[in-house]
Design brief:
Shape: globular
Number of helices: 9
CATH class: Alpha Beta
Largest sheet: 7 strands, mixed
Number of domains: 1
Order of helices and strands: HHHEHEHEHEHEHEEH
CATH architecture: 3-Layer(aba) Sandwich
Strand content: 15-25%
Strand order of the largest sheet: 3-2-1-4-5-7-6
Radius of gyration: 17 Å
Number of strands: 7
Bound molecules: S-adenosylmethionine
CATH superfamily: Vaccinia Virus protein VP39
Structural class: alpha/beta
Distance between the termini: 44 Å
Length: about 240
């Protein structure tokens, strides 16, 4: 990673209260591995070093805002794609135990190989759909947090994530700007699934100033057994 990219990463992290100076070599390696992965199979839409540093690395680190991911927590990253936000989170928060999941095998194979190369022992990637894992006793009610970035609208995320959370656990959804309509649909879905939208925090992505929202949904009670519905239905026919 050239000095300009290093400076961007340090600046973007510092704007969010994070010091990544001890992790610059591993972020540089992550950038190199992502660029190599992109050349072999189209892993992410972002191709330039600058876009990857700001829109993947700094953006992923914004999930740490508000302290919802502080502590020794078991965190499922729903729809991780090429490992975001899991891999940057694992680099700066070694106490988190991260389980990135994705339905696409080649993405998870890349994330697994990358986590191994980075010697991230706190990352355990898994191929699977949230709808299936949500009915698997090994995963249902099994996580302190579900973190998610760029996967679906809030009511869909609520249906996919709440079954996976232990009562008291939190869905931490990092999103772009959210409409009142989406928020209302998310609140209704949370109510049905045994949860409540607890915090909605608008903020700006450092350096670029793009609007973002961190939405936290608390699981307050048990999720009815019929949720999540079968594979694909939550996104195809959202509850609200
Ligand atoms: N979170 C990543 C990021 O921020 O760059 C990837 C976002 S990508 C747009 C969405 C990913 O979610 C895809 O890789 C897709 O395979 C995965 N996905 C969508 N629905 C899913 C589901 N129900 N269960 C597991 N993975 C899912």
């Amino acid at each position: 990673m050239n000095p300009e990219m290093q400076a961007l990463l340090v600046q973007g992290a510092a704007a969010q209260g994070l010091d990544v100076s001890g992790q610059l070599d591993r972020f540089a390696l992550l950038l190199k591995l992502l660029q190599e992965g992109n050349a072999r199979f189209n892993l992410t839409a972002l191709k330039s070093d600058r876009d990857i540093v700001i829109k993947h690395f700094v953006d992923s680190l914004s999930c740490l805002r508000g302290g919802f991911l502080d502590g020794e927590l078991k965190v499922l990253d729903l729809g991780t794609g090429a490992g975001f936000p899991s891999l940057p989170l694992a680099l700066v928060q070694p106490r988190l135990s991260l389980i990135p999941i994705d339905s696409t095998r080649k993405k998870i194979e890349y994330v697994r190989a990358t986590a191994e190369t980075l010697e991230l022992t706190n990352v355990s990637p898994l191929v699977g759909r949230a709808e299936t894992l949500g009915h698997d006793p090994a995963h249902r009610d099994g996580y302190d947090r579900v973190v998610v970035r760029a996967v679906a609208a809030l009511p869909v995320l609520v249906e996919l994530a709440l079954p996976l959370l232990r009562p008291g656990g939190l869905l931490v959804a990092q999103k772009g700007p959210i409409t009142e309509e989406e928020l209302l649909a998310g609140r209704r879905a949370a109510n049905l699934l045994g949860g409540v939208v607890e915090e909605v925090t608008p903020f700006e992505l450092p350096v670029l100033g793009d609007p973002r929202t961190l939405v936290c949904v608390r699981k307050t009670g048990p999720t009815p057994k019929k949720y999540p519905r079968q594979d694909g239905l939550p996104a195809k026919h959202p509850l609200f």
